[in-house]
Design goal:
Distance between the termini: 98 Å
Largest sheet: 5 strands, mixed
Number of strands: 5
Oligomer: single chain
Helix content: 25-40%
């Protein structure tokens, strides 16, 4: 029986073999890293879209504070803060209880996507506006829980769609979207 040939490290053949092995190992590690990165890309995109959605809610909160700074927030100011749009509905409803106002709006968050597409996430938020002529208005924000998308976030959360809201004549002409 013969002995298996051993490759001497100082020879040309040994350097080529060690170099090829190193390149193959590095290539394997690179392929695995790209595979893991590709598998987690959707989660990262959704997380960035959710962060953008939270930013939109905070911007809406700040805009409502500015709109209510004079002690009154009217329907026109609210409509300007939450314009209707696609794919999010924007303003869904306004409910007044004395000087306090509850605004429901569906907002949109965008994140990176694959190639030219973007990741879009919608969320349904209620904004509680408490006004006082002598103090800075307080606006609280609460996101309504939604079980699943792609349905409208506010529809999935049980908020009636704008078409289901009573008309202005049924409400007594209080404003474009006010409900009692």
């Amino acid at each position: 029986m013969g002995r298996p040939e051993q490759v001497d490290e100082g020879t040309t053949r040994g350097c080529l073999l060690n170099g090829c092995l190193a390149v193959l190992v590095l290539l394997g590690v690179g392929v695995i890293a790209l595979w893991v990165w590709g598998l987690t890309a959707d989660d990262r995109a959704v997380a960035k879209a959710r962060a953008d959605l939270r930013g939109a809610a905070e911007a809406g909160q700040a805009s409502l504070v500015r709109a209510a700074s004079d002690g009154v927030v009217d329907d026109g100011e609210i409509v300007r803060v939450f314009p209707r749009g696609k794919p999010a509905q924007g303003l869904v409803g306004i409910e007044r209880q004395g000087p306090d106002v509850t605004v429901t709006a569906e907002l949109l968050g965008r994140g990176p996507g694959f190639l030219l597409a973007q990741t879009e996430v919608t969320g349904c938020f209620t904004f509680g506006v408490t006004t006082d002529a002598h103090r800075t208005p307080v606006v609280t924000v609460r996101e309504l829980a939604v079980e699943n998308e792609p349905r409208s976030a506010c529809t999935a959360a049980g908020v009636p769609s704008p078409a289901a809201l009573p008309s202005a004549t049924e409400r007594g002409n209080e404003g474009p979207l006010s409900t009692r």
